[in-house]
């Protein structure tokens, strides 16, 4: 059983526990459920932003503890101030040491930037839950979903105003997963079976992603030259997590990275 298989099995248990604890009606009555979410597409195309989706992540299954000494409010505010086009917040507890409260705290600290709920969505309940805790964007991972699920989940997300980031790892996943309710496709350079990384995955898939979709490259991005090459290949956004989070001050790390990217 791969790490991904283990995560999905655990997620099934979590979702059932969540449904037993909080009803759909309870979630839909939350203060955030009625807010109008920010558009990921708009922020990615905004020239005043950087295209970077900066991630708050304490731990990963492959690396262990990355940084558990910083607050989600301080880090996400600093990411926003440095021009993040969106902020990704891990909400998986068992494997990434995240929590849904992290996303709500990031929302309270940042009203003017899209927030991505970074988790392993396998049920419509999690989509309703995402909006209830303050998310603007959900992640759909093609490797763990059928085309029918992607179609249903992306339609539901769109109906409640959420943007969808569809994540693929190879050409087969891309070709079977594209859906008109999805505006943004992310290429994950990390192999979710063994968690190895290679940015070449993005370059290999770039030409196969139709122009109808914005393109994001995820993982294995640690220097500004890589971003410049990815932009030349047609990528609009870049999800960066560990490169910032493994520093003592992730917000400062992003600010320095952006300064170099902009040539300051």
UniProtKB/TrEMBL annotation:
<dbReference type="InterPro" id="IPR013785">
    <property type="entry name" value="Aldolase_TIM"/>
</dbReference>
<keyword id="KW-0210">Decarboxylase</keyword>
<dbReference type="InterPro" id="IPR013798">
    <property type="entry name" value="Indole-3-glycerol_P_synth_dom"/>
</dbReference>
<keyword id="KW-0822">Tryptophan biosynthesis</keyword>
<protein>
    <recommendedName>
        <fullName>Indole-3-glycerol phosphate synthase</fullName>
        <ecNumber>4.1.1.48</ecNumber>
    </recommendedName>
</protein>
<dbReference type="InterPro" id="IPR001468">
    <property type="entry name" value="Indole-3-GlycerolPSynthase_CS"/>
</dbReference>
<dbReference type="Pfam" id="PF00218">
    <property type="entry name" value="IGPS"/>
</dbReference>
<keyword id="KW-0028">Amino-acid biosynthesis</keyword>
<dbReference type="GO" id="GO:0004425">
    <property type="term" value="F:indole-3-glycerol-phosphate synthase activity"/>
</dbReference>
<dbReference type="GO" id="GO:0004640">
    <property type="term" value="F:phosphoribosylanthranilate isomerase activity"/>
</dbReference>
<dbReference type="GO" id="GO:0000162">
    <property type="term" value="P:L-tryptophan biosynthetic process"/>
</dbReference>
<comment type="pathway">
    <text>Amino-acid biosynthesis; L-tryptophan biosynthesis; L-tryptophan from chorismate: step 4/5.</text>
</comment>
<keyword id="KW-0456">Lyase</keyword>
<feature type="domain" description="Indole-3-glycerol phosphate synthase">
    <location>
        <begin position="4"/>
        <end position="256"/>
    </location>
</feature>
<keyword id="KW-0057">Aromatic amino acid biosynthesis</keyword>
<dbReference type="InterPro" id="IPR011060">
    <property type="entry name" value="RibuloseP-bd_barrel"/>
</dbReference>
<dbReference type="InterPro" id="IPR045186">
    <property type="entry name" value="Indole-3-glycerol_P_synth"/>
</dbReference>
<comment type="similarity">
    <text>Belongs to the TrpC family.</text>
</comment>
């Amino acid at each position: 059983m791969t790490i991904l298989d283990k995560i999905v099995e655990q997620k099934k248990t979590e979702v059932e526990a969540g449904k037993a604890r909080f009803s759909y009606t309870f979630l839909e009555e939350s203060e955030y459920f009625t807010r109008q979410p920010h558009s990921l597409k708009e922020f990615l195309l905004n020239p005043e932003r950087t295209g970077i989706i900066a991630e708050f992540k304490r731990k990963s299954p492959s690396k262990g503890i990355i940084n558990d000494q910083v607050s989600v409010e301080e880090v996400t505010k600093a990411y926003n101030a440095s021009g993040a086009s969106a902020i990704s917040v891990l909400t998986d507890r068992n494997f990434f040491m995240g929590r849904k409260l992290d996303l709500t705290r990031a929302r309270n600290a940042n009203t003017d930037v899209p927030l991505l709920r970074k988790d392993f969505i396998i049920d419509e309940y999690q989509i309703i839950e995402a909006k209830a805790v303050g998310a603007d964007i959900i992640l759909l991972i093609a490797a763990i979903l059928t085309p029918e699920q992607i179609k249903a989940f992306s339609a539901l997300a769109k109906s409640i105003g959420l943007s969808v980031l569809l994540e693929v790892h190879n050409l087969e996943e891309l070709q079977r997963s594209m859906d008109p309710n999805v505006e943004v496709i992310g290429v994950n350079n990390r192999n979710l079976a063994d968690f190895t990384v290679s940015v070449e995955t993005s370059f290999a898939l770039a030409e196969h992603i139709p122009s109808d979709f914005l393109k994001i490259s995820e993982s294995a991005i640690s220097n500004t030259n890589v971003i410049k090459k990815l932009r030349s290949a047609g990528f609009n956004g870049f999800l960066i997590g560990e490169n910032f989070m493994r520093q003592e001050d992730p917000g400062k790390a992003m600010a320095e990275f952006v300064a170099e990217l902009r040539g300051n």
